[in-house]
Design goal:
By secondary structure, the chain is mostly helical. The chain is built from two helices and no strands.
């Protein structure tokens, strides 16, 4: 098996991991917003909600950037693999 193909398979696995993390962050953000909708600010401290939401969003953005980098690397490798055939 070629080195490029092994790297490609590793990137596919990493892409799956990062995609799952992204879905988890998106779900957590949605649930937090739903909690605010259901419970309101009488029960929740707005600055704390904003802080948590910002942290989740920041992490989500980091993983989105990583996913983009992975997809670019996969595209480059698939081109190299195709050229070597």
């Amino acid at each position: 098996m070629s080195e490029n193909f092994e790297k490609y398979e590793q990137l596919v696995c990493r892409e799956d991991e990062v995609s799952f993390k992204l879905k988890t962050y998106q779900e957590m953000i949605s649930e937090l917003l739903m909690l605010v909708h259901k419970r309101g600010m009488r029960v929740l401290n707005l600055p704390t909600v904003e802080e948590v939401l910002t942290m989740l969003h920041s992490a989500e953005t980091t993983y989105r950037s990583e996913l983009l980098d992975i997809r670019l690397a996969k595209t480059i490798l698939s081109n190299r693999i195709g050229e070597s055939e």
